[in-house]
Amino acid sequence: MPPMADGGSQRGYFRRTESPSNQEYVCTSYASGSSSGSGVTTAAGFAPIGLGSETVSSGRAPASINGIVGYSPSQGEVPCRDVWPLYPTCDVLTPHTKTVEDMLAVLDIVMTDEPTSDGDFWRTQETSQIYKSSEIRPKSFSSLMDPAALKEKRLAVPKCYIGKGTTTARDDPAFADSIRALWLQAKKDLETLGASVVETDSPLVENYTKQHFPGQAAHVPGMPEGWMISSDVRPFYAPLDDPCKHTEAGNRVRYADMIDYIRHSPESIHDLPDRFPNNGDVPRADAEEVVSSMQHALRDGVKYSNGTRALKHMSVPAIKVPTGIMADKQMPVGLAFAGRAYTHGDLLRYAYAFETATRHRTSPPLTPSLSSDSLASSFRLENPPSHAQAANLTVNVASVNAEAIGVIEVRHIHLEGTCSSSELTLKVESIKVFSNGEPSAVVRMIGNRPVDMAGPPQEAPTP
Length: 463
Hints:
The protein has 463 residues and is α+β, with helices and mostly antiparallel strands. 20% of the residues lie in helices and 16% in strands.
């Protein structure tokens, strides 16, 4: 991709990033997904985490369409120093991980106060109050791992994103039948977890996308004088060879007034967290060549993730978790939990509870396998069971000791636990442990006793 990419999965010197699930389709929304490389790399296991950035949905979109977890924070939550200012009032850093638990570990590191605000638009502007990361984050994000977080919660789903129309002047967003099926299952899962689901309008998106003044890119009515954005953004472009002299037309609004309007609106529903399908369909890979594919790719819900730029302009945080695979296209999609600014704690709890109960993520089928993915065994049963039986591995003790060797920190990890099977004819022959695909040190096994299914396991601890 270009060094300063924006838009969808653009082509670069080495072609473009392709989907690891089905290469007939694009790995992100058609016009939003410049962080698709981060999403695909994380999904395919090339790296344990990815760090993308987002202006509209460039972080959420590749997270959804690659079946991973993506978090899009409120402005100022995660420092944006050195993130190139494509659209400074919207730009945020968006981490990618395979699980919500991994996301919490990443946020423990990246949601921190920076010693300087140079190069961070939201930390240098003086119009709107932005909290320090230390003022809004928990002491440890692991404290948010609550599998019962959705019990007795009331969640809103915008009707425009589930095929039930909208009052906005724009066309209704796409809503593929296979995504409808996944949404209905997700709704059942949420209700099983104790949440109630309420269908609502989406005044934020509807008012944001409505053209109050035909022919002009105004997003809110009643713009006061002096509405043009401050020229103070220009120092952020100083390192570039040709700094931009004019702001985008759609950016010419007074953001303090927009935030104040939403904060004091008598009809606000911001206390009601939203959750909705992250995208309405996936674009075809031939959209640049086939007219019908291009027309489909430009529909709302396909061109961008649902919520579009309104979420980023209004500092709406959102976390995306997998909801399964589209039956007709074999592409993963996700569910987005969104809420008012700085409600990341609640959203992360909800996402963790949903993921823990559903476990919808699967490895992309086109990802090359590793030799450590399966272990050959010389042991054969005289009377093998008629069905595959997985072993149950439980880790009871885990400790880490760090040792400094020069400038390198070496971590010694010690694990203890049990490995068992409900199939009485099976026994544990050996245990192998891998770290980053490489075999670990020797694993010592103590005991190999049958399990009394009427009582607790009898195995001795297995270091």
